[in-house]
């Protein structure tokens, strides 16, 4: 890594932990979500990355949803936060245990409004109870159905079944979004080359009824991948 790359890595770590501690001090969900958005805007601005929302007219102004998205990059949650900026939709991210214990993301993840997913837990009752509590409080749930970042040379990895179960148990309509640009490659360009005026496109899909019996992955592919 050269000096510029090291400085960006240090800054990103500092900023992530700074906002993690700031969020820890707030008392309401509204303050938490506001700081989460602010963090996304500050970091992406530093990286010279702009977000373009396609089919913005499909984006609901408010309501509760299970938001699902493809996942290639560590900045995907930031992209989605900014895409929802003009709406009243706010939600808790499903975050795996590794993020809770991460040096880079741990403080932020534990405080920023997340539901812990521990795949090593003997059963999932605690997880589903936590999602139900979040929904009862009036919030949405955000999840990457692929389960982890897709690092393969494929447009989409296989969806896990848990996303559909969350929607069914909480009677949440499903809001599909698709990060159309390869955010991981753009992030690398931002860090390695400090390229200016980078842009990531995110596409908004049609709402899927939680009672729809078509597999979630098939529905998602029809809207974004196979069209």
Protein architecture, described:
It is a single chain. This protein is of the alpha/beta class and 227 residues long. The protein has one domain: Glycerol-3-phosphate (1)-acyltransferase (3-Layer(aba) Sandwich), CATH 3.40.1130. It is built from nine helices and seven strands. It has helices at residues 3-25, 29-46, 76-83, 97-100, 106-111, 125-136, 162-170, 183-193, 216-225, and strands at residues 49-54, 66-69, 91-96, 114-117, 140-143, 174-179, 198-204. The protein is globular and about 50 Å long.
Number of strands: 7
Supply the helix-strand structural class. alpha/beta
- Under CATH, the topology can be stated as Glycerol-3-phosphate (1)-acyltransferase
CATH architecture, by name, is 3-Layer(aba) Sandwich
> Which stretches are poorly predicted, pLDDT < 50 over at least 5 residues?
none
Count of helical stretches: 9
Distance between the termini: 40 Å
Largest sheet: 7 strands, mixed
Order of SSEs: HHEEHEHHEHEHEHEH
Helix content: 40-55%
Number of domains: 1
In angstroms, what is the radius of gyration? 17 Å
Taking strands numbered 1, 2, ... along the chain, how are they ordered across the largest sheet? Answer: 1-7-6-2-5-3-4
How much is the average pLDDT?
A: 94
Concise summary:
The chain is 44% helix and 16% strand. With 227 residues, the chain is an alpha/beta fold. It has a 7-stranded mixed sheet, sandwiched between helices.
How are the SSEs placed, and which strands pair?
Blueprint: H1 3-25, H2 29-46, E1 49-54, E2 66-69, H3 76-83, E3 91-96, H4 97-100, H5 106-111, E4 114-117, H6 125-136, E5 140-143, H7 162-170, E6 174-179, H8 183-193, E7 198-204, H9 216-225
Parallel strand pairs: 1-7, 2-5, 2-6, 3-4, 3-5
Antiparallel strand pairs: 6-7
Helix pairs in contact: 1-2, 2-3
């Amino acid at each position: 890594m050269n000096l510029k790359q090291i400085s960006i890595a240090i800054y990103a770590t500092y900023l992530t932990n700074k906002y993690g501690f700031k969020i820890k001090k707030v008392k309401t969900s509204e303050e938490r979500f506001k700081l989460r958005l602010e963090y996304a805007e500050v970091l992406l601005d530093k990286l010279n990355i702009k977000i373009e929302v396609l089919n913005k007219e499909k984006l609901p102004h408010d309501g509760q949803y299970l938001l699902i998205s493809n996942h290639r990059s560590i900045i995907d949650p930031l992209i989605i936060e900014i895409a929802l900026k003009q709406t009243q939709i706010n939600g808790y991210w499903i975050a795996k245990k590794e993020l809770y214990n991460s040096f880079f993301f741990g403080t932020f993840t534990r405080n920023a409004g997340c539901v812990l997913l521990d795949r090593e837990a003997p059963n999932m009752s605690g997880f589903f109870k936590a999602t139900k509590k979040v929904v009862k409080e009036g919030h949405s749930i955000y999840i990457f159905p692929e389960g982890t970042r897709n690092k393969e040379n494929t447009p989409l990895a296989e969806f896990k079944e848990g996303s559909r179960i969350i929607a069914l148990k909480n009677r949440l309509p499903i809001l599909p979004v698709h990060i159309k640009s390869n955010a991981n490659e753009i992030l690398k360009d931002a860090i390695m080359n400090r390229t200016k005026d980078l842009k990531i496109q995110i596409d908004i899909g049609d709402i899927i009824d939680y009672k729809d019996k078509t597999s979630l992955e098939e529905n998602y592919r029809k809207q974004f991948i196979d069209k």
